Please model this.
Amino acid sequence: MFSASRAVSRILRLTLVIGLAAAVPAQSGTADTALELVGAGRSQTLGLTLADLAALPQVEVRTENEFSDGVVAYRGPLVRDVLAKLGLDRLQNVRFVAVNDYFVDIPTSDFADYDAILAMEADGTPLSRRDKGPLWLMYPISDNAALRDPVYLRRLIWQVIRIEAL
Amino acid sequence: MTTPRPIPRYLGILVLLAAAGFAAVGFLTIRKDIDNLRIISQDNTQWSASQMEVELLRFRMSLAQLRRSATPEALDEMYERFDILWSRVFMMGHGQVGESLRRYDAEHGSVAAIADYLSEIDPAARPLHLDDAAALDRIEQRLSDFQTELREYTLRVVRADGAASERVRERIQSSARTTALISVAAVLISVLSLFLILRENRRQSDLVRVVRRSAEQAEQASRAKSRFLTMMSHELRNPLNGILGPLALLGQADLVERQRRLVAQAQNSGRSMLQMLNGMLDYGEVQDGRIHLRNEPFRVSGLADAVQESLRAEGAGRARVEVAAGTPERVYGDLDRLRQVYLHLAVYMIEGRDPAGTLIRFTHCEGLLVGEISFPEEDSEVDWRLDLLMGLSEVAPDQVASEALRPLIARALIAATHGVILLAEVSDERRVIRVTVPARPERLERIRVHLETRSEALATIYRAALKSDRVVFVAHGSGEPVDVVLVDSTTVGEAPLMARLRSTFPGALFVSLGLPQSPQFFDDIVETPNDMSRLRTSILGRLAS
Model:
């Protein structure tokens, strides 16, 4: 009786793994991939192109930061919308990785509390690699005095290429 | 035990100012610390500077890889590395971080030179020729030179940043020392404040003890004074009664008219003095809280008669006293104290006026006995000292005017009976003082009747005629209380009989059976003794009131 139930359990687990693999195939980065989302245990990945990100609701954030001159109008999708693509918004922390291997770990509560965006444009101009693009994590600093803290200023990671589950 | 001296006000203000000053300095110091911490973060440009050096190396490596294998992937890699290097170099001068980077490069111009060179070889503007080895060697050589300069630049940034951090650390240490000093000062002020508070608390406690002791002494003095007053009043009453008794006997003697007037005058003065002594006695008891008020049924008309009689003794017999129709026959209260109240007030108000214009009228309304003392408006020109009457002005006990004595006693008794005295509105061209005291009417379940007839046969007839479950006949000498006394008016010796009956049945209603010789002795008169229906109505009607 015991061995029979263990066999059934194994079959169920195997079926689950196969089903997940079929439902969400691992999508490694392609030539057009601008951002890669990596799930927990790296079992799931999702590549998003700039077109995919542009298809999400776009939000404008007018703010200052310590890397630019004056107030700049940044535009892009909300980070929480992007994280939700792979369910990363349900995690406690995620890691943002830049093209130069710089990374910063950020609690997802930031994106629930503030309308942080993955900026794709600055003052109407698409952000190129030379202009800290194509994706730059931007907080609405000018609208929230609490975001002027150095902790948040260090989280303004640019040239983002990957977001990983922690 | 000596009471500590009170803390000078300036000392308290000084402590408060010092505390406020230290609080302000502490706040500014902490705020400065926070700013210093922020400066540390904003001056942290080491990472940006070092990344320029790293990205230059990565670009050179990608360029070398491209020369080794000219594949599209290697070409893409080289372009990307160039763009990344570009983003690092050209961030200089933009934002606070870029300004810091420019400041550190101001004397050497290394980063500015790299920026110029990157613009010169920008592959996006001018494609690289991979087959031109000499040109590529020159690029590599130049980039190698920049590598050395960037390393030196990074070192400068690290050292300058370290120096800046050192300055900030010194500032924070200074702030910390200031904070420590402020904390010590705050502790000292707290200890000083605690000491002052404890000292002040002790002083207040001592003061409370002194005040309590003074109050107790004053209370004892007041009691002693009241006791003395009571004893004196008592001691004066006895000899006064000894004077009044012989005077009464003297008044009955055969005197000439002039002597009779003198005796009457002496009697009136004696009675007035007795009233005042009684009033003072009661006032003392009220002040001591020892007064014991009676709560016994009495006839309102009896109160009116008593007031009238007392006024007569005061020489104000012409003042009218009446009971309004519909007033309950009997109410509960302290007859003698109420008599004193109305007597003292009336005598005070009559002073300087014609007593004939003064009217005291008793009514009853919603459980309250209302006595209104009024006089005509034209008499108002006489100064009646309303403030003394109503006790409106605060007067020190040792400054009480003699004329204020009667209102003072009256008000004390009114307060003791939970009554109210007020100046009523002027109505009917009369000024009215209204005194209201609680006095619930007596409701009789059974009426107790005593028959005083010339023969037992007549008494039997009346008993038969008035027989009822609610009428009880009380025999003479039984000692039981009596509500109504029926007196056969043909009884011989009316005056002595009535005097005896009144003393035997105080508070009872006296009804004359037939027309009496002296109607003033009776409260009600049934003119036709055989009219049993009228008699029954008169007696049983008392039950309903």
Q: What stands out?
A: The radius of gyration of chain B is 56 Å. Residues 79 and 124 of chain B are 8 Å apart (CA to CA). Residues 447-544 of chain B form a domain with the Rossmann fold fold (CATH 3.40.50.2300). DSSP finds 14 helices and twelve strands in chain B.
